[in-house]
Specification:
Elements lengths: L1 H14 L27 H9 L5 H21 L8 E2 L1 H11 L8 H15 L6 E2 H21 L3 H4 L8 H24 L4 E2 H15 L4 H22 L6 E2 L4 H21 L3 H6 L2 H18 L5 E2 L1 H13 L11 H13 L9 E2 H21 L8 H10 L6 E2 L5 E2 L11 H21 L6 E2 L1 H17 L10 H12 L9 E2 H29 L5 H10 L8 H6 L3 H15 L10 H21 L7 E2 H19 L9 H11 L9 H10 L7 E2 L1 H11 L3
């Protein structure tokens, strides 16, 4: 946006050299590029080509040099209209309206706004332009030419014209953009000119009135929205004047602005989808840039602290202009920030406030994340405490596999499998997030959390997630369920009633995989089932399209008809949803169904030692070692004696039901209990899903 305003001013400034009040009519001077027509009229098209990375270095140089040559020719061929050798604003307006903008009058307010911008960019007065200032304008064009050449290789990233950008390209763009901001900031600061928010607002209002209903009005609308956010952002990141940018604040303001924009670009290009974003370096780099931004704001204050009110003003401004993601409720961003500073950055005197100590912790958080990514990729790194904890977390189970779509992959286990760099990389982000929560809610010296600690965490975090529209669950009891499910169904589950890092990290990875699977399933069904995503159509696609369940190859091998999958899905839906969807299938609903699919696949993968796709008695007995304690707790209210928990467990494996809900259940249960020597069964996936259904009722 700044470059667009700069270009608008420069174009006007380039033309002023021809203006004098009593000039006779004639054709305007034209300056052309080789193989092109008027360079001024094509300036906008050239900028578009530059943003789309269609200009060579020679063409970029020609464009800016052509503009500079225009000023030289205007100086040579025109006569100043103010005694002493200066050009007046009125002369500028006369020339533009006579030769370039016929029928488009420039009013006094807009003209004055343009001259105010000239004062900031090339110094001097807003009432005249001297020949010396025209020389300085040419020097500014040379500066912009050099900056443009520096940014040439990443222009498509900066202007968001590339569909995708690698981490290295995004990082390179961020570094070059900050250098450009510092360079331009120093240039403007050397002019020692202040510029107020009200002056910029007047300029934008004038341009909007001048453009009328032109397409540029949409761009101006975005700039006007930015103006509503700018004062609050500048207050946080630069401090200083409340009314605008002072003469001594230009470098800090533009460096902070480019850093902030770089953080946005890093996040923007990381989020092809949630799973991809969490695997890339974009998020830790964003936290690192946020730390740099905030440190500048803190150091600019005498008390070395940014208050919660200042931070809140930024979020409120973003909400007012609608620059928040869909589904984010008012106040949600500030609530998340307050929780983050108070719970995870520790030591803040007020939730939402931040000082140097919190910034260092934020920087360490991003540094640890980046360090673990280096480690996961096989680079030689120092074995910090975080690396050692991460390595111990990986050892809690055999390696977890992932497919190319970042879905957890459940093949048959092979002997000698190892944690490859790619497998490790998928585990970094859930480890970082869970380690943060462990430190916030657990004992910093322990790698486990008990049920009460998890419930406190859920009570605080759940409303934050709901504020962002990320979770529909409303019951705080989800914390108890989380511990039990992680304690039973992850590959590191040990059934001890405590949430270890090994279990927690795998559970979070489970959930992310389920979300990704549901997201892809519904994307594939959209062309077939339409916008409404009719439930039956979505279910049938799971059988018709092999891609949908490709991450669950062992399940796929057992699905021999649409009916098999439909019934299997309905069992899962009855377990986790109020009722099976009959109309639209939402991604949140399908995510919960996919979690159960993965639970069953994980169970089969872990305990089906003979790989027959079913569980026999000896295999069930291995599972019972993990399940017995939690199952005993669940069944205690029914009056079941502890010594009968194994009987109950194997009975369910036999019948896929409980003696309380099965027709003739008490009789069958007693017979089963009294004839232990005759126990035999083969439990397939449908039996296992039915057991999950029954256990959900306890």
């Amino acid at each position: 946006m700044f470059f667009k305003l700069t270009t608008a001013f420069l174009t006007l400034g380039l033309l002023i050299g021809c203006a004098r009040e009593n000039e006779r009519a004639g054709a305007p001077i034209r300056v052309t590029l080789k193989g092109s027509s008027d360079c001024l009229s094509e300036f906008g098209a050239r900028l578009t080509d530059y943003a789309n990375e269609r200009l060579s270095s020679v063409q970029i140089t020609q464009t800016w040099d052509c503009a500079a040559q225009a000023i030289t020719d205007f100086q040579r061929l025109t006569v100043p209209d103010i005694p002493g050798g200066s050009y007046s604003p009125q002369g500028l307006r006369h020339f533009l309206q006579r030769y370039f903008l016929k029928g488009r009058p420039i009013d006094d307010a807009l003209l004055q706004s343009v001259m105010d911008l000239k004062r900031v960019l090339v110094s001097g007065s807003s009432q005249r332009i001297t020949r010396g200032e025209l020389e300085r304008m040419k020097a500014l064009l040379a500066e912009l030419r050099d900056i443009s050449l520096d940014l040439k290789g990443v222009a498509g990233v900066i202007f968001m014209k590339r569909l995708v950008s690698s981490d290295s390209d995004t990082e390179r763009a961020a570094v070059l953009l900050e250098n450009a901001g510092r360079r331009l900031g120093r240039w403007i600061e050397a002019n020692q000119q202040a510029y107020s928010y009200s002056q910029l607002t007047t300029l934008l209002e004038g341009l909007r009135g001048y453009n009328g209903q032109d397409d540029d009005g949409r761009v101006l609308g975005q700039i006007e929205n930015a103006m509503k956010v700018l004062p609050a952002v500048k207050s946080v990141l630069v401090a200083g004047s409340d009314h605008g940018v002072s003469a001594q604040e230009w470098e800090r303001t533009l460096v902070a602005s480019t850093r902030g924009y770089s953080a946005f670009l890093t996040t923007y290009y990381s989020f092809d989808d949630l799973n991809t974003a969490l695997l890339r370096r974009g998020l830790p780099q964003t936290f690192s840039r946020l730390a740099d931004l905030l440190e500048g704001g803190v150091r600019a204050r005498q008390n070395k602290k940014i208050t919660a009110a200042e931070i809140g003003a930024v979020f409120e401004a973003l909400e007012q202009v609608g620059w928040t993601a869909e589904g984010v409720k008012p106040g949600a961003m500030m609530a998340m920030w307050s929780w983050f500073t108070q719970r995870t950055l520790h030591g803040t005197s007020q939730a939402g406030a931040i000082g140097l100590a919190q910034i260092e912790r934020l920087r360490k958080f991003s540094g640890d994340w980046d360090h673990l990514l280096d480690y996961s990729e096989g680079k030689k790194v120092a074995h910090t405490p975080e690396v050692l904890r991460f390595e111990n977390t990986l050892k809690a189970s055999p390696p977890i596999s992932w497919d190319e779509e970042n879905r957890m992959f459940f093949p048959r286990r092979e002997a000698g499998e190892i944690w490859t760099p790619e497998r490790k990389r998928h585990m970094v982000w859930p480890f970082v997030i869970l380690d943060l929560l462990r430190k916030a809610y657990g004992n910093n010296q322990s790698q486990i959390m008990d049920e009460s600690q998890v419930e406190v965490a859920v009570a605080e975090v759940l409303p934050l997630l709901q504020g962002f529209g990320w979770l529909l669950e409303t019951e705080v009891s989800i914390g108890k369920r989380l511990v039990r499910e992680a304690n039973l169904f992850t590959q590191a589950a040990d059934g001890d009633g405590l949430l270890s890092m090994g279990e927690a990290v795998r559970y979070l990875a489970f959930a992310a995989s389920a979300y990704r699977s549901a997201e892809l399933w519904l994307q594939r069904s959209l062309p077939v089932c339409g916008d409404k995503q009719a439930a039956n159509c979505v279910r049938q696609l799971g059988f018709q399209d092999p891609f949908v369940l490709a991450a669950l190859p062992r399940l796929q091998s057992q699905i021999d008809s649409p009916k098999y999958l439909m019934n299997y899905m309905r069992q899962a839906e009855e377990t986790v949803l109020d009722a099976p969807p009959t109309d639209t299938y939402r991604v949140t609903d399908l995510t919960m169904v996919m979690v159960l699919f993965q639970f069953v696949e994980g169970f089969i993968q872990r305990y089906d030692s003979d790989q027959t796709e079913s569980i026999t008695l000896p295999e069930a007995e291995n599972a019972f070692l993990v399940y017995q304690n939690i199952l005993g707790d669940l069944l205690a209210p029914t009056g079941l004696p502890p010594e009968e928990v194994e009987v109950f467990f194997t009975f369910m494996m036999k019948y896929g039901d409980t003696p309380y809900t099965m027709f003739g259940g008490p009789i069958a249960y007693n017979h089963w209990k009294w004839h232990r020597k005759h126990w035999v069964f083969t439990a397939d996936r449908r039996i296992l899903m039915s057991i999950l259904n029954q256990l959900s009722k306890f």
